[in-house]
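User: Can you recover a sequence for this backbone? Please restate the input before giving your answer.

Assistant: Of course. Working from this structure:
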């Protein structure tokens, strides 16, 4: 098979060359102005190549900004404790939870890992299991249609499985994952094995889950550049939606904003299920740790009305925290921290192999979803995030990724086969920062090649183009992605 593509690379043009299989020759692309600093002037040069590469503040936030960043970091790293406690700034954990602190899931502000007994603790920290059921009545159907809820919680276990509990309560259960290996042979005869996860709940504390329960395993995403993604103007994201090119037609997710009390564009989460960093943070505090906040003022977290002992347990709400377990000031500092985790500078972006890989990436059509660059708008009080040309390699849109990656669980306007295009910046530092190379929403891919080969649906042509490349060109493409 021969795929001939005409592409533009910045101000230069690469004309009509072919991906023809083993032995083909591809000319390198060029490095565009500013491409080496993917976060614009907010890009950090500090800690690149170390475990702290994702934990640096946005460049240019100033002395006051760095002070706020440090306090927010302390909240992100805080280990919460069960109530009652001697301090009202650290208690309120649970009663059911997945982790005691944000950093436990976002390893060094990076990517989480799937459950595995191969790790020292052998548990599911840094991953979680979403739960929902089809609507059971007209009221739930109406709320889903209006966007006021993203899904209908499992009636007993709630919106996600909490696999840890405070003393005196039982955990809801544990995530159990097994894998089936399926072989794939590339065009040059290279054999690759992909693993397909089978997820179940072991030791459910309150009996079997509802028979109609839809489950979706999720690993925690990396945290860098979130404030820059939030700063991309909404109209720029919407402008690319529903414009079909070569079988690719992304859609926006629209979800209910707890701050504005209306539907807003979804940007964050694996299915773009949150409209803002603040809401994503508040929902994680509540669901993952059972911590109430100004946006989600529920002290019992994800405990359902069927879990009476859980709902009756002591909580950590206090007047000093505005009647919540984390008050307005500390919550906003945590959000500021999440907004300003800087994108690290790229590594060797001008090398011959990386530039060749860039040409292969574009010729394979990967940029159809992984849009290379955007321009941010003005962010009030945050000039470091404002009016920057950034290179995240995402369109923030939902795409049908095919049956292979489908979790068959709708979330907001996203159906069971749709996923938001994840940003690629920093992806090559995953092993350095988080100590593993597990990718995709559930961590099934053990490396970038497996992640590419799982692409289907709208990405099928790009996946097949990759599978048809020579070993040399596959390695070049992977070198490019690892340089981002």
């Amino acid at each position: 098979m021969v795929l001939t593509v005409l592409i533009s690379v910045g101000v230069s043009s690469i004309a009509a060359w072919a991906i023809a299989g083993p032995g083909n020759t591809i000319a390198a692309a060029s490095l565009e102005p500013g491409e080496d600093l993917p976060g614009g002037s907010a890009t950090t040069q500090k800690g690149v190549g170390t475990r702290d590469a994702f934990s640096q503040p946005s460049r240019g936030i100033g002395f006051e900004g760095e002070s706020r960043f440090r306090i927010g970091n302390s909240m992100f790293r805080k280990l919460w404790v069960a109530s009652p406690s001697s301090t009202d700034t650290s208690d309120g954990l649970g009663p059911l939870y997945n982790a005691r602190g944000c950093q436990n899931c976002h390893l060094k502000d990076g990517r989480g890992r799937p459950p595995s007994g191969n790790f020292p603790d052998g548990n599911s920290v840094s991953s979680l299991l979403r739960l929902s059921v089809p609507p059971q009545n007209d009221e739930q159907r109406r709320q889903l249609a209006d966007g006021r809820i993203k899904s209908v919680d499992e009636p007993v276990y709630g919106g996600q499985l909490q696999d840890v509990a405070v003393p005196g309560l039982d955990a809801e259960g544990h995530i159990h994952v097994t894998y089936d290996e399926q072989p794939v042979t590339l065009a040059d005869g290279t054999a690759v094995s992909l693993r397909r996860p089978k997820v179940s709940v072991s030791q459910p504390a309150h009996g079997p889950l509802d028979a109609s329960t839809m489950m979706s395993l999720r690993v925690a995403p990396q945290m860098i550049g979130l404030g820059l993604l939030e700063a991309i103007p909404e109209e720029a994201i919407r402008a690319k939606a529903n414009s079909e090119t070569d079988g690719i037609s992304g859609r926006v997710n629209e979800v209910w904003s707890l701050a504005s009390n209306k539907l807003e564009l979804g940007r964050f989460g694996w299915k773009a299920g949150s409209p803002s960093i603040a809401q994503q943070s508040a929902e994680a505090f509540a669901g993952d740790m059972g911590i109430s906040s100004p946006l989600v003022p529920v002290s019992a977290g994800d405990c359902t009305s069927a879990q009476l002992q859980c709902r009756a347990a002591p909580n950590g709400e206090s007047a000093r925290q505005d009647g919540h377990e984390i008050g307005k000031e500390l919550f906003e500092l945590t959000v500021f921290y999440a907004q300003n985790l800087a994108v690290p500078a790229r590594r060797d972006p001008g090398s011959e192999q990386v530039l060749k890989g860039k040409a292969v990436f574009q010729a394979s059509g990967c940029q159809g979803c992984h849009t290379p660059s955007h321009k941010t708008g003005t962010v009030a009080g945050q000039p470091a995030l404002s009016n920057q040309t950034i290179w995240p390699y995402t369109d923030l849109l939902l795409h049908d990724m095919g049956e292979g990656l489908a979790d068959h669980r709708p979330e907001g306007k996203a159906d069971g086969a749709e996923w938001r295009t994840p940003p690629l910046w920093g992806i090559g530092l995953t092993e350095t920062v988080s100590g593993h190379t597990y990718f995709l929403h559930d961590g099934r891919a053990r490396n970038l090649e497996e992640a590419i080969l799982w692409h289907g649906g709208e990405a099928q042509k790009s996946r097949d183009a990759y599978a048809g490349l020579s070993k040399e060109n596959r390695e070049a493409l992977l070198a490019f992605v690892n340089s981002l």
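That completes the design. The longest helix spans residues 62-77.
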